[in-house]
Amino acid sequence: MNQGKIFAVGIGPGGADLLTPRAHEVLMRAEVVVGYRPYLDLLGNLIDGKDIISTGMRGEVERCQSAITKALQGRVVAVVSSGDAGIYGMAGLLLELEEKEDDPLEVEVVPGVTAANAAAAALGAPLMNDFAVLSLSDWLTPLEEIKHRVKVVAAADLVCVLYNPQSHSRRELLPEVINEFARVRGESTVAGTVRNAGREGEKCWLGTLTELPVADVDMVTVVLIGNSRSFIINNRMVTRRGYQVTDI
Ligand SMILES: C[S@@+](CC[C@H](N)C(=O)[O-])C[C@H]1O[C@@H](n2cnc3c(N)ncnc32)[C@H](O)[C@@H]1O
User: Fold this and answer.
1) 149-169: per-residue pLDDT in tens?
2) 126 with 228, same domain?
3) 172 and 102, same structural domain?
4) For residues 183 and 177, is the Cβ–Cβ distance under 8 A?
5) For residue 26, what pLDDT band results from cuts at 50, 70 and 90?
6) By C-alpha distance, which of 32, 68, 36, 63 is closest to 47?
7) Same domain, 126 and 229
8) pLDDT above 90 as % of the chain
9) How far does the centroid of ligand 1 lie from the alpha carbon of residue 103, in Å?
10) φ/ψ (deg, to 5) at 199
């Protein structure tokens, strides 16, 4: 039987114009497309006519196993993640599970525009210098570990992008994180939020840490916290890289 192949594809934040040509090409080639239903919906009619395997939230292991089974049957399979497949996406799990198979299987990771890139562009240029990305979800990472990382990042003066910032049921951590950054960096530290970055319904907020509309932050939002070099310039969030623009 022909050997199949699995592509772990980052489809970008959702807008068709932010799907890379490589991701588009791979989706066209795939016979089977596997993903979380809302991410498949973002692809619209691009995947019409393909075999679709979709599972609900937290069905990641099941999705990857189905993809591996199909590829072992000789099919070309695309496992889609929103943004980048290797940033809180499916690529790592696929590689871990594939390694357990007796028959070797080719897995290719296709990069995508992650939410941090799309949100940064929507706000201005906040990631011009060193930055960190943290997920506030305690589903797969113990809460104490998350809190420790928050303290370390806040102290290191890194611009910080928060993924999975707050859900309906998980509402205590984000205010705590904001307080920690405000305590270390000052209450007037620049911050921004972007909901639905890079797709229909994009909504940005820009201000200072203490003004941040915490109640409005949800699971389709990323929060960006500036550092000592971050400013609001013409209603855009900019982190200075260090160029001497006053001398020009
Ligand atoms: C499990 S992570 C997936 C990240 C994805 N692999 C990526 O590279 O963007 C889900 C979180 O990413 C963030 N996110 C993903 N897409 C987004 C978008 N278009 N706008 C704002 N935040 C987004 C949200 O914080 C969401 O809770």
Assistant:
1) 999 999 999 999 999 999 999
2) yes
3) no
4) no
5) very high
6) 32
7) yes
8) 93
9) 33
10) -150, 175
C-beta of residue 81 within 8 angstroms of C-beta of residue 114: no
Locate tokens 């525009």: which residue?
Answer: 113
The yes-or-no verdict on residue 181 having pLDDT over 80 is yes
What DSSP line would sit under 142-169, residue for residue?
Answer: -HHHHHHHHHHHHHTT-EEEEES---SS
Verify whether ligand 1 is closer than 6 Å to residue 174 (CB atom): no
Pocket test for ligand 1, best of 19, 80, 81, 220 (most atoms within 8 A of CB): 220
Q: What is the DSSP letter of 54?
A: E
Quick check: CB of 120 below 6 Å from ligand 1? no
3-state secondary structure of 30: coil
Q: Is 122 in the pocket of ligand 1 (CB under 6 A)?
A: no
Ligand 1 centroid from CA 45, angstroms = 22
Ligand 1: distance of its center to the CA of 219 in Å? 8
Residue 213 lies in a domain: yes
Q: Which domain holds residue 184?
A: 116-239
121 CB less than 6 Å from ligand 1? no
